[in-house]
Design brief:
Keywords: Cell membrane, Membrane, Transmembrane, Transmembrane helix. Residues 1-88 form the DUF3817 domain. With 101 residues, the protein is an all-alpha fold. It is 75% helix and 0% strand. It has 4 helices and no strands. Helix 1 packs antiparallel against helix 2 (33-60), helix 1 runs antiparallel to helix 4 and helix 2 (33-60) packs antiparallel against helix 3 (64-72).
């Protein structure tokens, strides 16, 4: 979910900079339908990201601060990739040190 949310938000951020910086979306009411649809998709994807992130935090027993940072990473362009990397590294380390039953 971090990758999917991050890719959509990153594409939208680039589109936003290009659209308002170079294509002058600010002075027109015409925006591509895909642009609006992607913002809606990002909203729903972020909602799913929140659910998955809270589930992960409960399963791994993360403290509240770490959980909030992981959840907020989905709102900052490209930051969900960074959060995913740290969580992946933490889970891999926990699995390596886990004792088999």
């Amino acid at each position: 979910m971090a990758w999917l949310t991050g890719v959509v938000l990153g594409a939208l951020t680039i589109w936003l900079v290009v659209g308002y910086g170079f294509l002058d979306y600010a002075n027109t009411d015409v925006k591509p339908g895909l642009y609006r649809s992607l913002w809606t998709a990002h909203g729903w994807l972020y909602f799913i990201y929140l659910i998955v992130g809270v589930d992960l935090a409960f399963r791994l027993r993360y403290p509240l601060g770490k959980t909030v940072l992981i959840l907020l990473a989905g709102t900052v362009p490209f930051m969900s990739f960074v959060a995913e990397r740290f969580v992946h590294k933490d889970v891999a380390a926990r699995m390596a040190t886990a004792t088999p039953n």
